[in-house]
Design goal:
The complex is a heterodimer. Helix content of chain A is 75%, strand content 0%. The longest helix of chain A is centred in the middle third of the chain and has 34 residues. The chains are: A mainly alpha, B alpha/beta.
Chain lengths: 340, 390
């Protein structure tokens, strides 16, 4: 090899060696997004999300005008697009289907984040590149979240567009804001499940096992969650026969708080208030007096700020749970040995 | 040369030391610690003889990077001093007090059975796992503190290298280039060049899942070279490839090493392959480097004896009276595996005198070989039985 070729190599080595180290996670995220969008699971989930939008609209398109009269007050008509249900089948409505699908989305895009790199043998090669180790997990989380956010946003835009073009329902600004808030809270809820699935992918070496565990826990939480938490609440905060009224009320408060620990409950409380300006409280009445008071209340519509104020605690707890879940995955991944 | 084991290699020493948890300090540096366990046991039995000040100083010096790195030559690219890694649950350290120096432009072969600690050493050199104790410097940098700077200069081919199966070979390399921040156009040129070099041009745009094992390995080498490293670390590069593939891979490595002025650390448990490629080799056993040096030097051994394998047509015992009186012959022993042979240990070259003497006595020579010429024998000499290595 001649001398000038060698010096060229030296110059190149020196120049490349000076490169700034930042931004590794963006490279990883970009690659992961590409992989996700190409994957079969993306298409399947896109179909499911599409069905969640199309089926309620298809069945309810005729009834949307009736629904308009049922919804108290004109400003909430656009929101009815997302909450309208097929007669007799209450859960076939977009917001309920999205609530059902959200954990599925999160788990589907996260359960194999880290363990597949391990089983493919790409992890040592990836980590031997000049990137920080957390770039891997950050990039993968960001990619999953971006793809899911893209999916949900297009779902909302398609429903909205359909409503405007075919049904002639034009949204008010406050309704758009409510839909945006709903979208954000939903993405947050998906982020929780994505963080949970990422954690599973760090801890469980086989991606198939991680997926099974993830879906099992999701199903358990949705189906039996309220039941189990209820039993636990009874055991932890019992209301005996001879407690004073104040004590009983206090225990009931604790009990409600405990029941709200489930992210599923938190999300449902939050979105029901955000999508329905008519709901003025997330607390179920405890005493007869509260029940009467709730019944005697004049039907009013809350402004967006007031609705948000009502669900702020739920949103904050959801953020906290998501951060905690991701932090756990992050720490465990950083402390894990590269070699099993 | 700071490779401690070079000074006195030998299986005996390795066997003794493995029982001992106390790590001997570099010779002539600190309070005399003696030859390991017996010394410490004695001191434990007579605690009044311990000099706490001297011991504390020795301990401090043994951990002082400046002190440990004082003898490192200028051209050292990879330096390890007292490097130790312990995994919880493993009875002994995976890497135990390793001293290693690899110079610029050198090809160093790390040899040892599976589980001897080769991969763990490599991971510590790259900063992919943290040492429990000791010091590592790669191109003058501490991989634990500055992992990115090290990883920018070191190309790594992991054992059992994997690629993203759905992406083509070229796309996989492009991903690596992006992670290294190499501009797109420069990367394209360089990747085409490398793919040609590892003869994967035709397969470059097929998905990697269709590649054979040998092709994946060659792609791995191209991948390690994408960042144009000055150091190349290859972990078991020839494992699970057919013999023809191995030959091709070694030829490729030989060419790359001579063309690119690379410093190479190569780990393997297949000896013959390394022989032709390495300037120096080190034998790894149970987390310890039991011997290191150029092959020829290792072959002569510590006592510089020549070991001759001799077989004659007839009773091998007849060799003894012929060989014993020759000048330079130290001892004669039966061969450990072949009863028809004798081994003559000699201080110097006695081959000519011995064959002449045997011919004079009328013995027909049927076998003559100098031991230590091939790695397998050296390996047997330095590394304890594979059977007791987990």
């Amino acid at each position: 090899m001649s001398a000038d070729v060698r010096s060229k190599i030296d110059i190149r080595r020196a120049r490349w060696a000076e490169r700034a180290p930042s931004g590794g996670w963006r490279t990883i995220a970009a690659k992961e997004i590409g992989d996700h969008v190409d994957s079969v699971r993306f298409i399947v989930l896109l179909l499911m999300v599409g069905l969640a939008a199309a089926v309620p609209l298809y069945f309810a398109a005729d009834a949307i005008r009736d629904a308009a009269s049922r919804v108290s007050g004109a400003p909430a008509l656009f929101l009815a697009l997302f909450t309208i249900s097929v007669q007799d089948v209450g859960f076939v409505r977009t917001d309920a289907l999205v609530a059902l699908l959200a954990p599925l989305l999160g788990i589907a895009f996260g359960f194999d984040a880290v363990n597949v790199e391990r089983s493919q043998g790409t992890l040592p090669r990836l980590l031997s590149q000049p990137i920080h180790r957390d770039d891997v997990i950050n990039g993968k989380f960001a990619a999953g979240l971006a793809v899911i956010a893209l999916m949900l946003t297009s779902l909302v835009l398609i429903i909205g567009g359909f409503g405007m073009l075919r049904l002639g329902i034009v949204p008010e600004l406050s309704e758009v804001a409510r839909i945006a808030a709903w979208l954000l809270v939903t993405i947050l809820y998906v982020a929780f499940w994505l963080a949970f699935a990422t954690l599973l992918s760090v801890v469980i070496r086989r991606s198939a096992s991680a997926a099974l565990v993830g879906f099992g826990i999701w199903l358990g939480l949705v189906v039996f969650g309220a039941l189990v938490l209820g039993i636990l609440a009874n055991a932890l905060f019992p209301i005996g026969p001879n407690v004073t009224f104040e004590e009983g009320l206090q225990t009931q408060g604790l009990r409600d708080l405990f029941l709200r620990l489930s992210p599923h409950t938190l999300y449902q409380d939050a979105v029901s208030v955000i999508l329905n300006p008519g709901i003025t409280s997330t607390v179920r009445p405890t005493t007869i007096g509260q029940l009467f008071a709730a019944q005697e209340q004049l039907p009013t519509l809350l402004s967006l700020e007031q609705s948000l104020l009502l669900v702020w605690p739920q949103v904050v707890v959801l953020v906290g749970l998501t951060v905690a879940m991701f932090a756990l995955a992050y720490v465990l991944f950083l402390r894990q040995e590269v070699r099993a | 040369m700071a490779d401690d084991p070079t000074a006195a290699p030998g299986p005996r020493r390795g066997l003794n030391r493995k029982k001992v948890r106390a790590r001997p300090l570099p010779a002539g540096r600190a309070a005399p610690v003696g030859a390991g366990g017996s010394d410490r046991d004695e001191r434990a039995a007579r605690p009044w003889e311990v000099d706490p000040v001297a011991e504390a100083r020795a301990e401090r010096l043994a951990r002082d990077p400046a002190h440990l790195l004082a003898d490192v030559p200028d051209d050292a690219v990879i330096v390890a001093r007292r490097l130790t890694k312990e995994y919880p649950g493993l009875g002994r350290p995976a890497v135990d007090s390793l001293d290693l120096t690899i110079h610029a432009g050198e090809v160093f072969g790390l040899l040892g059975p599976n589980g001897a600690g080769k991969t763990t050493t490599v991971l510590m050199l790259l900063g992919l796992t943290e040492p429990t104790d000791g010091i590592v410097r790669v191109v003058g940098l501490d991989p634990t503190r500055e992992p990115l700077a090290v990883k920018r200069r070191v190309g790594y081919l992991p054992d059992d290298v994997g690629f993203y199966p759905g992406m083509s070979g070229r796309e996989n390399l492009h991903y690596t280039a992006r992670l290294n921040g190499i501009p797109r156009r420069a990367a394209e040129e360089r990747i085409a060049e490398l793919l040609a070099e590892v003869r994967l041009e035709e397969a470059a745009d097929r998905p990697v899942e269709q590649y054979s094992r040998g092709m994946r390995q060659r792609l791995g080498i191209a991948d390690a070279l994408v960042k144009d490293p000055s150091v190349l670390i290859l972990d078991e590069p020839t494992i699970a490839i057919d013999p023809a593939g191995v030959e091709e891979l070694l030829a490729l490595l030989r060419r790359l090493v001579s063309e690119r002025r690379l410093t190479v650390l190569l780990s393997s448990h297949i000896l013959g392959q390394v022989q032709s490629l390495c300037d120096r080799v080190g034998f790894f056993s149970r987390g310890r480097l039991v011997a290191a040096g150029p092959l020829a030097e290792l072959a002569r051994g510590a006592d510089r004896t020549v070991r001759l394998e001799i077989g004659i047509d007839g009773d091998p015992a007849a060799i003894d009276p012929v060989a014993a009186p020759l000048p330079g012959v130290v001892s004669i022993e039966p061969h450990d595996r072949d009863p028809r042979l004798r081994i003559v240990n000699a201080h110097e070259e006695v081959t000519a005198a011995l064959t002449a003497a045997l011919a004079r006595e009328g013995h027909a020579l049927v076998h003559l070989r100098r031991q230590g010429d091939d790695l397998l024998e050296l390996y047997r000499r330095y590394v304890p039985e594979d059977g007791d290595v987990r």
